[in-house]
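Blackboard transcription, Thursday session:
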Amino acid sequence: MSQQSQSQTQSAPHPQSALAGYDTGGFFDELVLQGGQSRPDSTALINLINGLAPGELFRRQNAIEKALYQMGITFTVYSDDAGTEKIMPFDILPRIVPSILWRHIDAGLRQRIKALNMFLSDIYSKQEIVNDGILPRELIDSAPTFLPQCMGLKPFNDVWCHVTGTDLVRDDTGAFYVLEDNLRCPSGASYVMQNRFLMKKNFPQAFQSSQVRPVNDYPARLYQMLREMAPPTVDDPKVVVLTPGMYNSAYYEHSFFAQQMGIELVEGRDLIVEKDFVYMRTTDGLQRVDMIYRRVDDIFLDPEVFRSDSMLGVAGLMRAYRAGNVSLANAPGTGVADDKVIYAYVPDMIEYYLGEKQILPNVPTYVCLREDEREHVLKNMDQLVIKAANESGGYGILIGPHATDAERKDFADQIRKNPRNFVAQPTLSLSRAPTVFGDKIEGRHVDLRPYILCGKDDVWVMPGGLTRVALRKGSLVVNSSQGGGSKDTWVSAEPGQTIAEV
Amino acid sequence: MLSRVAESIYWMSRQVERAENLARFLEVTHNLILDQPEDLVDPWAPLIQVTADQKKFDERFKVMDVESVTHFLAFDDTYSNSMISNLWHARENARSVRESLSSETFEQLNEFYYFVRDSAASASQLSHTDFFDSVRRFAIRWTGVLDSTMSRNMGWHFANVGRLLERADKTSRILDVKYFNILPQLDDVGTAVDDLQWSALLSAISGFEPYRSMHRLIRVPTVVEFFLFNSTFPRSVLFCIDGACESLLKIGSMSSDDSDHHALELACELQVRLSSADVDEVLDQGMHEFIDKTQTDINDIGIAMNQDFFHSAVTT
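(Written on the board underneath:)
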């Protein structure tokens, strides 16, 4: 906890304050203690809320949503009419993480990404972790995300995951767990930038007195990292962002980062491979490309190697990659470590490759492939969260306590039919954070996705991240495709650390 | 610059200009009927004729009147050349090249599109005067934002070429349509009505005041000259082609590729033809034919842009 916050005193909530009568509901709350007192690092913010005139929060919330719409900060929803754009709902109450906790998260994430990169180098070459009996071969052989086309690939400096967006959750004791690693082009970092921009504009005083660490250097760091991970033979590497196009749900983010980094946003049709080098088509003829920050999924990258019907990729890209003439961030093939069953083995990987104990624990996970664990899962479906191995975005999940008998039966059948494809975890009572609904503030469940950059010799963890919030009352699903919103995340600075300027 | 990006910027700019000019077409016609006696020529039919989409109009409407024509040209999102469709396409193009535009440029276009979309939704309660007034302001703001927030890099020059080619084409069309509309009433030449009509026509290209300060008297040859051959007024055809030549020259000098640029060549030829034309001769030999030829030339420059820079299938 920072010294600044200790010196502040807390004012009692005004009887008309939006926080009056706020109930933590027995959950771990990110800003408020049981009984309504603020947590030490949240004092400035809570005081501000208590001091606001009635209706003021609501007014600011509205103003921000309007600004998001005007700025065209939207994502595309697949299930709606083609190309429907929505703003990602944004809650103006930030989530605050004390510096001491952040030190723990930072160390845990660095350790984890190191082990995961080593795992990927191993699994696409000698597979020692399998040969040594740590990871069952059957898991690799049956993982659709394991790409045999990537065997023998050697990304520069053995970095496979240049950009990672790990999902963290807290339980009712406030302990942090890693929920998912997201090693395949994780999205959302642009929302962190925009959320911060809006918060500074709307709550400058509370922001300043909370001593928040900056996140705005992320695009600059991303660009620096991409440059240094280009083929080492190139002096002044040309870096581009590869997008599936404007109808992709994360298109805004792709164009945002291209713009922030000042580099070209290309689509597959803009690129061509000649003699194992990648070029883009310009008004000036062909121009060479050295590093591709690709936001296109593995299997669409190169119709010569992966899905032959892909219109999003570039024929010959993998040839150029294998020849060492272009870098891809992230490397193809990383998805195998995202498999929710293989996830269960990450603590073993950390021990195997680093000889260390995990700093940030996994959520306890039952692997249905193991008979005894499967039986346990089938008997306790009403208490567990059951996940299919290779779905994301909140799809393919059964939340046992909230499911109907029919839904549970359907999942039970699927588990028996294909046990390899399922894991189960206890239903965590996820932590909550105060969230604005009209003139009221209510607690809603949140998670946290910090972003991690892996460079040549350094790992950088963004001090902050995307706090996603399940806006529906009682819901545990935070995904934007399923009614989730986001909040700014304020990580308190330790003495001596850089503080964000308003 | 990526060929795809250059092409999208070029079209984005053309489409906004096209939407703006549709508003100008409609606005001038709205103003004309306010000023003219009731038995004068039907002002609405030529607006549809000039689009060459008569059939599409007939599929949707039985009568050609202020309501149907305004709806068709401004708000019909099933008609691909309406204002709202053009702005939608422009916004889609802008979205696809957002990283190459200034944030303000995108936001301005975003707002412009939403304004027209929301107006379309409440079209029945709309005051046409207010609507066209707002559109004109949006369009001027768009031009200002584009010019004051973007570097004069290739992207801006492609936007500028798109904007000027479209504007040159539309200025010539406004003149062409209205000339037919006004001139057949030979009895009216020199009367107050005629003066009002020509004034409204000049207003359609925001040219009433500049024309007055240059020529004061309204005479057919000087109005035609103002529309086609004025080298100082920003919506005159010659001024637009001058600007397009300049931008094409700049694009050429920014390229390291030394292959011939056909678009520049064609634009320069057109510039010479316009600047050496004599308005009396043009009127004698048929203004409509002259404008027709000019439009063909502008179209050819567009086709050459495609071959020189975009390297894709021809789009219109």
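Lecturer's comment: Confidence is low (pLDDT under 50) at residues 1-8 of chain A.
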